Amino acid sequence: LFFQILGAVILGFGIWILADKTSFIAVLQTSSPSLKTGAYILIGVGALTMLMGFLGCLGAVNEIRCLLGLYFACLMVILITQVAAGLVIYFQKESLKEELSSIVESLIENYDPSNDDKRNLQDTWDYVQRQVACCGWTGAKDWEKNEILINKSMTEYPCSCSNSSKDLEVYNGFCNLDDPVNSTATYADWPVHEQGCMDGVEKWLKDNLGVILGVCTGVAVIELLGMILSISLCKNIHSEDYTKVPKS
What we know:
CATH topology: Cd81 Antigen, Extracellular Domain, Chain: A
Distance between the termini: 22 Å
Number of strands: 2
CATH architecture: Orthogonal Bundle
Order of helices and strands: HHHHHHHEEH
Number of domains: 1
Helix content: 55-70%
Shape: elongated
Largest sheet: 2 strands, antiparallel
Number of helices: 8
Strand content: under 5%
CATH superfamily: Tetraspanin
């Protein structure tokens, strides 16, 4: 039963990644094919885990060794896959960070409130900046590469970056800077958050690292227990009795 619930959670998480349009995940899955591939893998693993849980229950109740063996094999494959995925993420974290930086920097550079084709993606990034209370990826200076702001001599700034109370009701687009000096300005003149979103995301990961590791470790331990129990049941069943297989 646990693995059926776990499978449903994994399946739901994969579907959420594909369907989510209001968080930082949406920025990644719209721009990065690798995240979409990962979501499909999660959906597949979730469906397999649910099926595996059903087979394990059926094998244990009816004492069918082949089903228990299949249950053990599936658990082992999933556990090995999880460990491999963790190792890949750990050893490729710098390249993943570079890819993520490239995605966000391109988004900021080409941000255009009048572009309806990219409205959902840009609204999502505005949502991230408001919720995390950040500006740009490494800082507000990233926005100085935006062509629209360059053409306006930096006398406007992204509203979602604002730390001013007057901009709280403005959720996207650009806001006018009050009293720009000589009709020009720099990011240092903007009333925006100093923290870059990269620092905000890293801080969130560090704050929740214990929970993430705890959940992953707990799942791995339960999978190991499931493997041990299934192989123990297999050894205790001395002979196959296929008359116990439910007939439709």
